[in-house]
Amino acid sequence: MNRNKNGVWRSVLRRLKKYTGWIVLSILLSAVTVVGSLWIPILVGRAIDCIIAAGRVDFASLKTLFLQIAIIAGATAALQWVMNAINNKVVYQVVGDVRREAIRKLQKLPLSYLDAHSSGDTISRIITDVDQFADGLLLGFTQLFSGVVTILATLILMLTIHPGITLLVVVLTPLSLLSARFIAGRTYRMFHRQSKIRGEQTAFIDEMIGNQKVVQAFGREKSNAAQFDAINERLKKASLNATFFSSLTNPCTRFINNIIYAGVALTGALTALSGGLTVGGLTCFLSYANQYTKPFNEISGVITELQNALACAAQIFALTDDAPELTETGDQALPPATGRVSLEQVSFSYRPDQKLIENLNLSVAPGRRIAIVGPTGCGKTTLINLLMRFYDVRSGSIAVDGRDIRSVTRQSLRRNFGMVLQDTWIKAGTVAENIAIGKPDASREEIIAAAKAAHAHGFIKRLPQGYDTLLSDESGSLSQGQRQLLCIARVMLRLPPMLILDEATSSIDTRTELKIQDAFAAMMKGRTSFIVAHRLSTIRNADVILVMKDGQIIEQGNHAQLLQQNGFYSQLYHSQFNPTV
């Protein structure tokens, strides 16, 4: 969703609302520090007026004035430090809130959204864009408040000194504001484009690093480098345009402010010569005129940075506020299931214009082992995704124990399934923590028993710290087969009433696979199991084998029955075990 600046501002203010007390305190401290800094020129002006002529200096008054200046300067510096600490606290609390929102939102996003957005772009939004947003917000807190208070206070003080010259300052100042606003309005779009290209670049880098072996295996280094150079060139142009136009703000406002200062100095000097101002009063007024125009320079810089911050905020809010959440249609929990599963007239496709599963019917009795085979793209994994409600059916229904799975919560449904996939995932943590993902309160004895059942105990004991060895998803300390054994151990530990094994032994050697099959047989006893396999040797003992093609079940039966039919399954089987037939 394309958010305009007003919408982004509303999102920012909504997140600042809970810190209203701290923000009010920061504004009050800002006002106090500004008053303190503006009081000093008055004291300096009085000190100058104490120096009347050679030999005519009021040293007693000067001593008192210098002491007052020192006290006010010290107190102002201390309060400014406190104000900056509060500003930092508020900004980084907001940044923490936004990142927590983003992570929680990621847990609720439908897979269709994640499929359509690269992980690199999402990472860029949560990390880089939030950092840029924080920098702009912090600059706004530290300079915007004090700048506005300074302008108001100096305006009042200048009016008390000489209203005529003050009027000259006020009339010329809007030129500075107009130039800053003109430039800022155009830089927002440039910073927004820069942020989008930066996300694209992060996504490309993430993809290349994650698939470096494939890149090198197919000799794609040069073409990928050229593609990266093209993205980098677009990012350079976008960044240069945004930086160039935003950098015009400060010189333009400084030029106008210098003209104002020169006009004030000339007018003030003529007024002092005619007796309308004292020398100390002129010094004080010039100091205020300088302090009055200075915040306009700072605010123009803040506005420029805020354009970048808002552009980055738009990117992150597009995720936290605008991305569609996974709707929970059911409000009841599914109790521990017996394992009876039925599919009636199920139709589903990832894209409306590309049919996949049409009018699929299936009835599975509790405790049955159902193998699903077929060529690539026939809908095997899609059927698993539908059973787990990673996607919802477009039409028809899927029921567990007679209850439509859309009428129960996803969490309660998934607690009834144990899943081992071809793609493994290892979280940052110890080996024991990785096995206990589905059962965090498991004892060490239970974890070890599950590892032994998965035939993972042997290699775990050979690791440097055994079950306390630290792992990460990027870690190369484990082979793909060892990682898959850990995933199998997770299911062995929890043992839910239904199992899904999607190419669960694809990365395991044949000798270990035979041992795992025995463990699986014990695990599947009395549990409804869905087994997706390309290696047909692993599903010979299944109660029912479903042969899928083009989203339809074209054959079903056990291994012997399907071979006897001499149909599509028979062709698949013989192509693997007797390719000459």
Protein described:
By secondary structure, the chain is of the alpha/beta class. The chain has two domains: 5-322, ABC transporter type 1, transmembrane domain (ABC transporter transmembrane region fold, Up-down Bundle); 341-416 and 496-577, Rossmann fold (3-Layer(aba) Sandwich), CATH 3.40.50.300. It contains 20 helices and 14 strands. It has helices at 5-16, 20-50, 59-108, 111-116, 119-161, 163-172, 174-210, 212-217, 221-247, 249-273, 279-322, 380-387, 410-415, 431-435, 444-453, 457-461, 480-494, 510-524, 559-565, 568-577, and strands at residues 51-53, 56-57, 341-348, 357-364, 369-373, 395-400, 403-404, 417-420, 429-430, 470-471, 498-502, 528-532, 544-549, 552-557. The strands form four sheets. Strands 8-11-12-5-13-14 form a six-stranded mixed beta sheet. Strands 4-3-6-7 form a four-stranded antiparallel beta sheet, covered by helices on one side. It has a two-stranded antiparallel sheet with strand order 1-2. Helix 3 runs antiparallel to helix 5 (119-161). The chain is elongated, with a radius of gyration of 35 Å.
Please give a handful of descriptors for the protein shown.
single chain, 581 residues, alpha/beta, ABC transporter transmembrane region fold, Rossmann fold, 6-stranded mixed β-sheet, 4-stranded antiparallel β-sheet, 20 helices, 64% helix, elongated
